[in-house]
Amino acid sequence: MTIRTARLDVHLTPADAHVALRTDVLLGLTAQPKQLPPKYFYDARGSELFDEITRLDEYYPTRAEREILTTRSAEIHAAAGCPETLVELGSGSAAKTRHLLSAMRDCGSLDTYVPVDISEEITQRTAAELVEEYPGLNVHGLVCDFEQHLERVPHGSGTRMIAFLGGTIGNLYPRQRHAFLERIRALLGPGDHLLLGTDLIKDRARLEAAYDDAAGVTAEFNKNVLAVLNNQLGADFDLDAFEHVARYDEEAERMDIRLRSLADQDVRLDDLDLEIHFGTEEEMRTEISTKFTRERIAAAYDGAGLELRGWFTDAAGDYALSLAAPAG
Ligand code: SAH
Ligand code: AVI
Q1: What is the distance in A from the centroid of ligand 1 to the CA of 92?
Q2: Residues with CB under 6 A from ligand 1
């Protein structure tokens, strides 16, 4: 038997990541209202906290997506024409992805898995685990910002499925989402498919509870972005001087996640030589999490030259995995 090792290409060196962080934070903290991009939640602690979120009672999306993948992976794989390569964007710990990989293995098509994530630590761990768990599997991981380096995703062999699970597309703003889908469309060759996970619209109470759990894990995850700025930009944010806010914006059909300043305070960021003032009650947006309907997803695909080819939901209809391919 051939013993394989995972290959990991790092397209985001610590130096590049630092420049990007400096630029984004300078822009975000000097904007009115202030905001920070959600990709900076995911240092080692942030990835751990996100994994904790996925196990919370209130946070149904992971369970719902797991239910679909547990029961319908073989069907999804067949509907996508039994691809040989699975590329996964924002792969994280790839916990649910195992169902898809097993379906590919069981039908004999599995050749290559390409995990793509901004966090080097978690991608390294995921790649190493999967080489062990799936003997003979080629694992070619990529550490990069999927909004910037999508074109560097290795091709793998045969046809591919590009999976973007967990509802992470909901964390992109409409313009970013549109540009992202267009770039995915450009990556898809004949026979390739996109498998996209999206949370669906539901009542406000369930949505708000999912993003403001009783144990306070989501609040800690949200505040972790301040810890990232403290560690990486020499900032002096007092995490106790901010509170977590999670509201459903019905008009925009998205969760709006913010940090609210509990005091009139100045924060210093040494690496940026910047001092920023927060007024009492001032809110800074740290994330959106958009919720969808089938119609909205079909329209988003349509606008990006893609076509909805398959629709899979959990029994409760809380969450959807959709399959898309180039239109026409
Ligand atoms: N797919 C997993 C993890 C979702 S959490 C699941 O369904 O459970 C979101 C993941 O996307 C994190 O692992 C985070 O590091 C990654 N991520 C967020 N923004 C990113 C970006 N711009 N480029 C690459 N990865 C990103
Ligand atoms: C990664 N992403 C899909 C999660 C979400 O549900 O939008 C991130 C998250 N933020 C707070 N809780 C979970």
Answers
A1: 6
A2: 39, 42, 47, 50, 54, 62, 90-92, 117-119, 122, 145-147, 165-166, 168
Cα separation of 58 and 307, whole Å?
33
Cα–Cα distance, 288 to 21 (Å, whole number): 19
Beta strands in 135-291 (DSSP E): 138-143, 160-164, 193-199, 242-249, 254-261, 265-269, 274-278, 283-290
**Encoding tokens for residue 147?**
């909004």
Q: Which of 278, 275, 212 is nearest to 242 (CA)?
A: 278
Which residues neighbour 120 within 8 Å (Cβ) at sequence distance 6 or greater?
8, 10, 12, 143
Nearest CA to ligand 2 atom 7: 289
Q: What angle do CA 270, 230, 21 make, to 5 degrees?
A: 80
Distance 142 CA to ligand 1 centre (A): 12
Q: Which residues of 290-311 are buried (b: 16+ CB within 10 A; e: fewer)?
A: bbbeeeebbebbeebbbebebe
Local confidence pLDDT in tens for the 328 residues of the chain:
566 789 999 998 889 999 999 999 999 999 999 999 999 999 999 999 999 999 999 999 999 999 999 999 999 999 999 999 999 999 999 999 999 999 999 999 999 999 999 999 999 999 999 999 999 999 999 999 999 999 999 888 899 999 999 999 999 999 999 999 999 999 999 999 999 999 999 999 999 999 999 999 999 999 999 999 999 999 999 999 999 999 999 999 999 999 999 999 999 999 999 999 999 999 999 999 999 999 999 999 999 999 999 999 999 999 999 999 999 8
Residues in the chain: 328
- Rounded Cα distance between 150 and 89, Å, is 9
Half-sphere exposure of residue 328: CA atoms within 13 angstroms, side-chain side:
6
Largest interatomic CA distance in the chain: 64
Give the Cα separation of 278 and 269 in Å (integer). Answer: 13
